[in-house]
Amino acid sequence: MRRFLSLIIIVVAFCLAPILSIVTVGAQKPVVGVQQKALKGTITVSAASSLSASFVEIAKAFRKLNPNIKIRFNFGSSSSLVAQIQSGAPSDVIASADLSNIVALIKSGQVASASYPKIFAHNQLAIAVKPSNPLKIYSLEDFARAKYVALCGITAPCGVYAAQVLAKAKVSINESKITRAVDAKSTLNAVAVGDADAAIVYVTDALASKKAVTLIRIKSDQNVNTSYAIAAIRLSRNLDTAEAFINYVISDSGQAILKSFGFAKN
Fold first, then answer.
1. CA 251, CA 122: separation in Å to the nearest integer?
2. Structural domains in the chain plus CATH codes
3. What whole-number distance in Å separates Cα of residue 188 and Cα of residue 32?
4. In whole angstroms, what is the distance from residue 58 CA to residue 258 CA?
5. Which residue, 185, 198, 205, is CA-closest to 123?
6. What is residue 14's predicted lDDT score, i.e. its pLDDT?
7. Taking the CA of residue 184 as centre, how many other CA atoms within 13 Å lie in the half-sphere pointing to its CB?
8. Entry pTM
9. Judging by DSSP bridges, how do beta strands 198-202 and 149-152 pair with one another?
């Protein structure tokens, strides 16, 4: 009798095994038809001024997918934005025209996770001159013809990059001929309004200015390739939305928008 009962148990277990296996595998599959939690609320994005036009377009596209969110922008020099965040200014995302400024935030423990920063775009510098280029400035060496040259602030990324470009070209400009601006946009504007004869700015800013200035390309062996980096801020009150925005910036859709404004794809 015991042998007979044991044989029945074995047979039943053998028959149930495929069924148990199917149930286990099925439990590991995602439930079809369940949507992810909708994003909502407001985020503040602190971004380099050279990103202003492209990021406004990215925000429009992002909000079409997420209509229940609002995005506030704080555009300015990357170094100034970092200083503001370190002083307690509320921000959810930082997008810098360089890596070093975000590294400063990482060192002070203000970046959300070790997965940041993320490089999302590249740029180069260019010369901006008055329309029709009356002084015939076609290279950095021709700055000797300019009465005033506009450069970004010394600590701003565009100011740091400009110094590197001038050093490569072995061009020195007397400080009395330099007018400094707080960021790349203001530097370009100095030429547009006639306060300077030439400026060193980002290619993307010169392209976006349309007819306000004339763009002069800098020789490749004198130029620098700049990297833009982005990160979520640790004290963000809407971290899910902040990280979703970052993911959109680095997505194919976000990269396509950046490319349309002249940025090189990461």
1. 15
2. 41-122+227-265 (3.40.190.10), 125-217 (3.40.190.10)
3. 52
4. 8
5. 205
6. 38
7. 33
8. 0.83
9. parallel
Q: Cβ(46)–Cβ(95) under 8 Å?
A: yes
- 9 pLDDT band, cuts 50/70/90, is very low
What would the pLDDT profile of 19-77 be if each residue is shown by its tens digit?
222 222 222 333 333 335 689 999 999 999 999 999 999 999 999 999 999 999 999 99
pLDDT surpassing 70 at residue 6: no
- Token couple for 160: 């740091």
Sign for the CA dihedral angle at 167, 172, 176, 178 comes to negative
Instruction: Give the helix, strand, coil percentages of the chain, each rounded to 5.
Output: 45, 20, 35
DSSP code, position 38: P
pLDDT of residue 87: 95
SS (H, E, C) 128-183: EECCCCCCCCCCHHHHHHCCCEEEECCCCHHHHHHHHHHHHHCCCCCHHHEEEECC
Task: Strand 226-232: give its sheet, edge to edge.
Answer: 69-76, 41-48, 93-96, 226-232, 118-123, 264-265
